[in-house]
Amino acid sequence: MFDNGDQFILLAEVPGMTREELQVKIQGNYLELSGSRMTEIPEGYKAHRIERHNSTFTRSYTLAADVAIDKVEAKLADGILTLTLPKAAAAKAKQIVIR
């Protein structure tokens, strides 16, 4: 996870998973990433060897600031889930001019 001041970027390796197998939940500064993968055997076949088993995972993160949930973007490409999490306006630092 990276922070550039205005937003967080989360890169998660999820090889072989599809969008339908992943769930992302955000509430304030709490992020939960979970997924499940089921091994399917083609109809009419029986498995002699299975290298990739059914699995589920859940990861949760407490972010350093609240997120603008309506501006979150998620992209899945080449086994990498990229979440762009803009910080809520109240969470961004503001420079105060001293007079």
Describe this structure as you would to a colleague:
- There is one protein chain.
- The protein is mainly beta and 99 residues long.
- The protein has one domain (2-91): Immunoglobulin-like (Sandwich).
- Helices cover 0% and strands 43% of the residues.
- It contains no helices and seven strands.
- Strands 1-2-7-6 form a four-stranded antiparallel sheet, with no helix packed on it. Strands 3-4-5 form a three-stranded antiparallel sheet, with no helix packed on it.
- A hairpin with a 2-residue loop joins β3 and β4 (30-37).
- The radius of gyration is 19 Å and the shape is rod-shaped.
Task: Give the gist of this structure.
By secondary structure, the chain is mostly beta strands.
Sheet-strand content, in percent, reads 35-45%
Rg, Cα atoms, Å: 19 Å
Q: Which CATH class applies here? A: Mainly Beta
Q: Give the neighbour order of strands across the main sheet.
A: 1-2-7-6
Describe the secondary structure blueprint for this structure.
Elements: E1 2-3, E2 7-13, E3 22-27, E4 30-37, E5 55-62, E6 73-77, E7 80-86
Antiparallel strand pairs: 1-2, 2-7, 3-4, 4-5, 6-7
Key terms:
single chain; 99 residues; mainly beta; Immunoglobulin-like; 4-stranded antiparallel beta sheet; 3-stranded antiparallel beta sheet; 7 strands; 0% helix
